[in-house]
Amino acid sequence: MWTTSPCPTVGDVPPTEPSTRQRWLARTAVTAMAGAGLLVVGSAGFTGLFLVVTGLIGATLLLAGAFWFLARRGVARWIGLVVVVLAIVFLLYSYARADVTAVALIALGLLVVGVVTARAALIEIPEPWMPTTEVAPPERPFIVMNPRSGGGKVVRFGLQAKAEALGAEVALLDGPGEVDVAALVRVAVDRGADLLGVAGGDGTQALVAGIAAAHNVPFLVISAGTRNHFALDLGLDRDDPSTCLDALRDGVEVRVDLGMIEDRPFVNNASFGAYAEIVQSPQYRDHKEGAILSMLPDLLSGVGGTQLTAVVGDTRVDSTQAILVSNNPYGSGRLIDLGRRSRLDQGVLGVVAGRLDSATRAVGLLRRARGQSVTVLTSPTVVIDADAAEIPVGIDGEAVTVATPVHCTIRPGALRVRLPRDRPGVPVAKTRIEWNRLWRLASGRTVDPARMG
Q1: How does pLDDT run across 77-127, given as a tens digit for each residue?
Q2: Cα 380 vs. chain centroid, distance in angstroms?
Q3: Nearest in space to 146 (alpha carbons), one of 213, 216, 228
Q4: In this structure, are residues 161 and 281 in contact, taking their beta carbons and an 8 Å threshold?
Q5: Which domains can be identified in the chain, with CATH numbers?
Q6: Distance between CA 301 and CA 291 in Å, rounded?
Q7: How far apart are CA 313 and CA 419, in angstroms?
C-alpha cells in the first residue's frame, strides 16, 4: 500500500541490543495474541474459524458499500448504503447467533493486552526535539488577533488584555476582507516591531510567518484557531491559548522550516485535487456535507476531477486524484500519523499522493500490502502538473487558484519561532506494530532497524 522514500536527514541505524524489559514485553504480547486466537478457535471449534472469516467478510463489505455510497449517484449510491447496513446486521447477527459472548470478551481482553505490550516493547527513545535557544524578551512585540477565529477564543480567553499587559501592541481584525493583514504587519516591522505574533487560523499564521521570515523577526504562534495544526506540532497548549503569551516574558526560540508554493508560504500543507476542488465549491461554505456528497462521485471516478502528476525529486507519480504537500513529512507514512509532524526542521517536503477510484482500492486499504493506492515520498522540491492551465489549491486551509505547473519548495530554518518555556510538548505518536521485529524481540535475536518494516 505504501511507497516510501527515506528522509535524507536520517542515517543508517546500527543493530541495537534490546533491553530485558523489551524482550519480556514482546514475549507477553506474542503469548497474549496467540492465546486470543487459540481461545476462539479452541473453544468454539469450527464456529471460531467461521467467526474470524465472518469478521473479515463483514469488514470488506462495509468498506466497499461505504465507497459505493460516496462514489456513486442514484440507485448505485443507495445500493451502497444498503450494503453497509446489511454488513453491520450480518456481523451482529453472526456473533449473537454463535453464543460465544464470554469467549469473545476474554479473547478481546487478551488481544488488548497483546497490542498494549507490543507497542510498549517496540517503543524507542524519542528522537531529540528541535534544539532551542535562550533569548531575551522582545521589546516591541506586535500581535494580530482575529476575534472570530476558533469560535471566539480571543475574547473568551481575554487574549488582547493579557498581551497588552505584557507590553505587546495588538491589532484586532474587525471583519473579513476589511484589513490587509500583510500591509498591517509590514508597517509594524517598519516601525520597529521585534516580534510578530498571530492569534488566528493557520492561513493567517502562514501569511505573517512569511513576513517574519523575510525580515528575520521572531514569530509567535497563539493557538486561537479552530484546528491549530501548527501549534500542535510546536508542542503548544491548544486548550488554553493564553499560555502561548508566556513566550513574551520567558521564552525560548527554535528554528523551523517554511514551505513555499511559488512565492506563497505555508506552515502546514497544501492540498491538490479532490479536497481542494471541494473547498473551492461555492456551496461548500454553506452546506459542507451536501457539497462533499454531490462532488465526490465525479472526483473519485476521475470524470470531474483534475488528473494530477507529481515530480518529487527524481520520482514521478502519475494519474493521482489527490496530493498533499506538507512542510516536513507527516508521521511514518501511515494514515493514522497524517495529523502530526515530529519535527519541523528536516529540510524536506512530505508528499502523500493517492488514488481511490474503485471499491477494490478502498478494500485494499484494509490490507497493508504494497500497491498503488497511496504513495508517500519526501524531497526538498515538488512540482505538481495537471491537464489544466490552473488548478485549485488549499494552502493551510485557504482556497486559492494557481497556474500549472506548481513549484513547491522548502526554506530550511527560515522561521524563528518564539515558544513559552513551559508547554505540553508534542504528543507521542502511537508505535507501529512491526510483526517481524516483535518476533525477533520475543525470540531473543538482535534487532536490526534497517531490515524491519
Answers
A1: 678 788 888 888 877 777 666 666 666 677 778 888 888 888 777 776 555
A2: 19
A3: 228
A4: no
A5: 20-127+433-451 (no CATH), 132-259+416-420 (3.40.50.10330), 269-412 (2.60.200.40)
A6: 16
A7: 33
Asked whether 232 and 179 are in contact (CB, 8 A), the reply is: no
CA angle 220, 225, 228 (to 5 degrees): 75
Helix axes 101-122, 435-442, angle to 10 degrees: 80
User: pTM of the entire structure?
Assistant: 0.67
pLDDT for the residue numbered 280:
47
Question: Cβ neighbours of residue 102 under 8 Å, at least 6 residues apart?
Answer: none
Q: What is the pLDDT of residues 262-317, one digit of tens each?
A: 899 999 988 887 655 544 444 444 444 443 334 344 444 444 457 789 999 889 98
And the C-alpha cell for 248?
Answer: 513574551
Angle at 212 between CA 129 and CA 417, to 5 degrees: 20
Segment 341-391, tens digit of pLDDT: 878 999 999 988 876 544 444 444 444 434 456 778 899 999 999 888 988
Reported as a single tens digit per residue, the pLDDT across 28-65 is: 888 888 887 777 666 655 566 666 677 777 777 777 77
